[in-house]
Amino acid sequence: MTGKETIMSEQASKREEAGRAEEALLPPVDVVEDAHGITLYADLPGVAKDGLEVRVEGDTLILEGALDLALPEGMEASHVEVGIPRYRRVFTLSRELDSGKVSADYRHGVLKLRIPKAEHAQPRRVEVRVD
Amino acid sequence: MLYRSFFPRDLFADIERMQRELDRNLGGAPSIRGGTRGYPAMNVGTTARSVDVYAFAPGMDPDSLEVQIEKGMLAISGERKNEPAGQGATVHIDERFGGRFRRVVSLPDDVDANAVTATYRDGVLHVCVARKEPAQARRIPIQ
């Protein structure tokens, strides 16, 4: 297969713009492609289902989540590793993906997105006939 | 072009920003266990009544998380098993943590190791350790 890099490339410039406007954590992701589409897993611990937003704008996939830890009142932080209460990551979808049929599943802080390939990009086996 | 400065005004600001981003991503010197801070990431906070530890460990089966308190140390351990890629699948990005993990934090002296609650919600393990009643100021009678 050729052009793997462009199948799902990150838009660094867009991310940077977003980062300047509002700082956000970059959630780690796994992206796996099979014959019928792409599966994306993103770690968004601390985001409630209501605080999660998955959007497709044109060929851009945007993942956003707001951290909600329900901290007890009057808590003083003594050690902080997760210091920004927001996640954000942006991807560019390639044209053979059917962005209208994205399905999302969220459980225990892990988002699982399934983006199928468009009909015309599905693999087809061509029968070879011998006369 | 002729009069363009070799040092555009915001160059240093850009370098500083890059440095900040690097620091944030790398977090200083790496630890002997490989990671910069280890997995899972942790936040610790205190209130008058409790010490609260938040471990960011998404995608876990709550039963496979282990929380232990021993000698004033709180240990959180477990194993994360990610869904394996199917046959003939191509992995383009592989960033999420997988495998066994263990992290230990030391607790203040005034905690009550018998009054601990642990809850797992949205991929965050919250361990709340109660603190002992603050020692009351007592008047000592003079005999």
TrEMBL record, chain B:
<feature type="domain" description="SHSP">
    <location>
        <begin position="33"/>
        <end position="143"/>
    </location>
</feature>
<comment type="similarity">
    <text>Belongs to the small heat shock protein (HSP20) family.</text>
</comment>
<dbReference type="InterPro" id="IPR031107">
    <property type="entry name" value="Small_HSP"/>
</dbReference>
<protein>
    <submittedName>
        <fullName>Hsp20/alpha crystallin family protein</fullName>
    </submittedName>
</protein>
<dbReference type="Pfam" id="PF00011">
    <property type="entry name" value="HSP20"/>
</dbReference>
<dbReference type="InterPro" id="IPR008978">
    <property type="entry name" value="HSP20-like_chaperone"/>
</dbReference>
<dbReference type="InterPro" id="IPR002068">
    <property type="entry name" value="A-crystallin/Hsp20_dom"/>
</dbReference>
